[in-house]
Amino acid sequence: MKRYGVVAALFVLSMITYIDRVCISTAKDPIARDLGFTDAQMGVVFSAFALGYALAQIPSGWLADRFGPRLALAVVVSGWSVLTALTGTAWSFASMVVIRFWFGVGEAGAFPGSARAFVNWLPVSERGVANGVLFSGSRIGAALSFPLLVMMLDRWGWRWSFVVLGAVGVAWSVFWLWWFRDYPEKRLEVAPVAGGPKIGLREVFRTPVFVPAMVQYFAGNFTFFICLTWMLPYLKRQYGLTDAEAAAYAMAPLLVGAVSQWMAGFVVDRLYASRMRAWSRRLPAIAGFGLAAGGVLAVSGMETPLGAVLAFTAATFGADMTISPSWSYCADVAGKSAGSVSAAMNMVGNLGAFVSANAFPWLLAWTGSARAYFLVAAILNVTAMVCWVRMRSVSTQDS
Fold first, then answer.
1. In sequence order, what DSSP letters do the residues of 247-268 get, joined into one string?
2. What is the pLDDT of residues 312-362, one digit of tens each?
3. pTM score
4. Is residue 333 within 8 Å of 194, Cβ to Cβ?
5. The dihedral formed by the CA atoms of 218, 219, 221 and 225, expressed in degrees to the nearest 10
6. Contact yes or no for 145/253 (Cβ under 8 A)
7. Right CATH for 2-183+207-396 from 3.40.50.720, 1.20.1250.20, 3.40.50.10540, 1.10.10.60
8. Do 320 and 353 meet the contact criterion of CB atoms below 8 Å apart?
9. 276 — phi, psi (to 5°)?
């Protein structure tokens, strides 16, 4: 059925999104060497993406709701792919920050657009697995980015590597515009037209059912973003690893994160079909944040790279367990405003990524140890557990 093709196409998009996003972490050393960047400046470069990504979430969600996911995704994917290629033309710190900021603005539309496509095409009972598949693509893409970029950097250098990656995204957007339609031909047999009243921007930030979703997503992104930015440099510096060794280690948490996405999506849908429907979103998320809190606390106490990676893996597995419940929750409570509401959640979440990218090098320089960063992340994860206890989506409550 075509709706499975929609999930598959968005899975590929998710992979592309994170390959483009994470490649700069692998290319950190040659970029810093060629352009003379310090670690603090690279932190700003990393976080420039997160800031642009966060600020553009709500406009991109509105774009998906207003014009449909077909046009919205074609526009944003082609736009950020051009900016991926332009990363290879950066000549200074300012130019790199500006390009990565606008790259983040472009990528902001990927998951809100995907969320609206799922609302249009999938029944509620299938959205847990669909979101699990979607976000597992991001983890697989991020994991593949590490060895892929090591190979590309060796062959083409960092500048041409970014150009090649940009071309792949443009190809996907052309395919999507040609193949996808905003709604299936037989709507009633697949998924009803999204219902519910339109939700204004002011209401999103003042309504009790939305605010905890944003807080918990901030915590999850704060924890996970280290895997996309500072994990590989941390492993290299802390344990004296080569580029290839660090890349091999850094793949593990992200690949396991993909498994976590599949598992969480499956559990969400199975619980939804059971007597525990009211907990189908909450239970996987609470368990995930508990595991993430324990994992991040353990990282800095590990004496070997294997131990550190196992702790990172536990934290990533836990954080990724919360993704499918979060996006399913937004679809439950927002209806035809799913693009806008999920974008607001993702915006606040990626402010967590922005803070994380800068907090790690700052806390490391201030305290001389990464332990303070991991302690902050653990506290945020516990706070997120409390948020989920109070999060009840309308369509999953017991009748």
1. HHHHHHHHHHHHHHHHHHHHHH
2. 999 999 999 998 899 888 878 776 666 677 778 888 888 888 888 788 888
3. 0.74
4. no
5. 130
6. no
7. 1.20.1250.20
8. no
9. -95, 30
